[in-house]
Design goal:
The complex is a heterodimer of chains A (306) and B (280). With 306 residues, chain A is mostly helical. Chain A folds into 2 domains: 73 residues, no CATH class; 200 residues, Orthogonal Bundle (MetI-like fold). The radius of gyration of chain A is 26 Å and the shape is elongated. The termini of chain B are far apart. Chain B is 80% helix and 0% strand. Chain B contains 11 helices and no strands. The chains are: A mainly alpha (306), B mainly alpha (280). The interface between A and B is large, with 57 and 57 residues.
């Protein structure tokens, strides 16, 4: 609990940096608008203003600075604008409405969770196979590790379109990407976890003449729990990022990714930013849920959760 | 029909060979250890080729490995130009700037225990966020050339490197720090002679995580606007022309670049942290 104050300080510093940046980022746009509204602006032509940086222009037009925080179509919206937009689209709309962020959030979340479930299940099964079969270990494991260095995520939109052209639509294509992205972290983490019992513990089980399956259920599986949770947290955020990227340039009409792009294309930056922050909050919530489950589970299992 | 049978035979033969090798007397030989995954990979590619043949799969859906290979041979110059634009200009520039910024902030924050306690959780949290979603915003701010890609990459790699560096700088024991104090070493000698070397395994962990992120950021950002060159641009336009073999050729390049980048980092790590137990 002693780190609450430092965390708040760091967040405050980031917010302050953001607030300071709003002025120079929006100054040129605001100055143009102010001129149309017949306010005094120095220098008084857009061309002349181009010679100034955002900061320089702000210093010459200090009376316009407050306006940069409420400009309708800012390059960089101010924090309260984003918060306002989020409040409006989360609480101000029916959740079935196309303008509700909750609706879009669910469109993104459903394939994320489904894919995460598939990917995790398959990942655990493959990890068990790798731990118990030397052939699988030697032939598949190097590829599992190499595959983590490949920027697969960048291909997510293509996968969506290919599957779409094959007639697979809706939840499934995005789930496949989410599953793929959570699959390998879980495989790698689980293999490490299932192998974490040391030879002393394995020997003990051998002196009890425990069978292979007893060894699995009584020793290897419980021992892998901390590794599994670490992988789950990586996997769920990778799944969410994958779903969002899959929605970005594929012409999806709903979901966080679609909202980000729509806001960008139709000149409504607030929509993009609200979607971006909503996605961030969702990711934080998912990771947070797993942290809580991790802490409770490991505590009940008698392990020290950090 | 023959091709399906052939695929089954190839699969069976590859698997049988691997079983014999893995359970054989030489399975701990480093050469055999490299051979087994190679056989597995080649088997997969052969099966893929034969199945595409057997089912006469439309190249618009899944091209055969041979046609992808042909593309790689023919389109060399264009792929090289894309590689330069995306990997060298976009990803590398962003990676270097993001890494340096993270390193600088970590060194500064490290002087205050208070800041460190705040930066670790916040940075870890930021590293889990879908930062790649900021790509359209950066493309709008900085234009469609490589600068915007480098910016996205810099932001994406910043937090993992920051968190790992800060964590690494804390990773010295009181005994070690006391020893430095008995030598009369001040802040800077302690930093350079003890704490930075001790932090290297952590820093390289962050650098390695960031390699993949850098490539993802650079390629994804090109989907939102790019000059008429670049891997992300080529992937999306080739896709529009249904030239799937070209898309796959870019995927192969991206995969090679990703593994190569990661491998290079691992090599440097081996040279720098030769003293660490994990390297011995």
């Amino acid at each position: 609990m002693k780190s609450v104050l430092p965390i708040l300080t760091v967040i405050a510093a980031i917010l302050l940096f953001w607030v300071v940046c709003v002025v120079p980022m929006n100054m040129h746009l605001v100055a143009d608008q102010a001129q149309r509204d017949a306010l005094v602006v120095t220098p008084d032509t857009p061309a002349a203003r181009q010679d100034y940086s955002g900061v320089g222009l702000a210093l010459r037009n200090t009376h316009l600075i407050p306006l940069t925080y409420n400009y309708v179509r800012p390059r960089l919206p101010s924090p309260h604008q984003v918060a306002g937009e989020m409040y409006k689209t989360i609480f101000g709309q029916r959740i079935t409405s196309k303008r509700s962020l909750v609706f879009h959030g669910w469109v993104t979340l459903a394939p994320t969770l489904l894919g995460f479930l598939i990917g995790t299940t398959l990942g655990i099964l493959l990890a068990v196979g790798i731990v118990y079969s030397r052939v699988m270990d030697l032939s598949v494991m190097p590829w599992a590790i190499v595959s983590q260095t490949i920027p697969i995520l960048a291909l997510a939109p293509m996968v969506i379109v290919v599957l779409g052209s094959m007639g697979v639509q809706g939840l499934i294509p995005k789930s496949i990407i989410a599953a793929y992205l959570s699959f390998f972290p879980v495989v790698v983490g689980m293999v490490k976890g299932l192998r974490s019992p040391d030879s002393m513990q394995l020997d003990l089980l051998r002196t009890y003449s425990a069978s292979k399956s007893q060894g699995f259920w009584a020793l290897r599986l419980p021992a892998s729990a901390p590794y599994l949770f670490a992988s789950l947290k990586i996997g769920i955020s990778a799944s969410l990022v994958g779903t969002i990227v899959a929605e970005l340039p594929t012409g999806a009409r709903a979901g966080f990714g679609a909202r980000m792009l729509v806001g960008d294309q139709y000149g409504q930056p607030l929509v993009s930013w609200a979607a971006l922050f909503a996605a961030a909050i969702t990711a934080a919530a998912l990771v947070g849920i797993f942290s809580v489950i991790e802490r409770i589970t490991l505590k009940r299992m008698g392990m020290n959760a950090s | 029909m023959m091709a399906i049978l052939g695929a089954l035979v190839v699969w069976g033969a590859g698997w049988y060979l691997n079983i014999r090798l893995a359970n054989g007397p030489y399975s701990n030989n480093p050469f055999v250890k490299a051979l087994i995954p190679a056989i597995f990979g080649i088997t997969l590619i052969l099966v893929w080729e034969l199945l595409v043949w057997a089912f006469d799969i439309n190249p618009v859906i899944l091209p055969a490995p041979s046609s992808i290979g042909a593309r790689l041979m023919v389109e060399g110059p264009r792929l090289w130009a894309d590689f330069q634009q995306t990997i060298i200009k976009g990803a590398m520039t962003g990676y270097i700037f993001g890494g340096l910024a993270a390193f600088g902030v970590a060194i500064l924050a490290d002087r205050s225990d208070f800041l460190t306690r705040g930066i670790l959780p916040v940075g870890g949290f930021m590293a889990a966020l879908p930062i790649v979603g900021t790509a359209p915003i950066f493309v709008k701010w900085l234009g469609s050339d490589w600068e915007s890609k480098a910016a996205v990459v810099a932001v994406m790699v910043f937090f993992p490197i920051l968190v790992n560096t800060v964590a690494g700088l804390k990773d010295t024991s009181a005994m070690q720090r006391d020893l430095m104090r008995t030598y009369g070493a001040g802040y800077w000698p302690t930093l350079f002679k003890l704490r930075l070397p001790a932090a290297m395994p952590f820093i390289f962990n962050g650098l390695k995580i960031a390699t993949t992120l850098a490539l993802i950021g650079a390629i994804v950002a090109e989907f939102f606007g790019s000059p008429t060159v670049g891997m992300g641009f080529r992937i999306s336009t080739s896709f529009g022309q249904l030239a799937l073999d070209m898309v796959w050729a870019e995927i192969v390049i991206a995969a090679l670049a990703g593994s190569g980048f990661y491998g290079a980092m691992t090599l440097i790590e081996k040279r720098v942290t030769f003293w660490h137990p994990s390297q011995r």
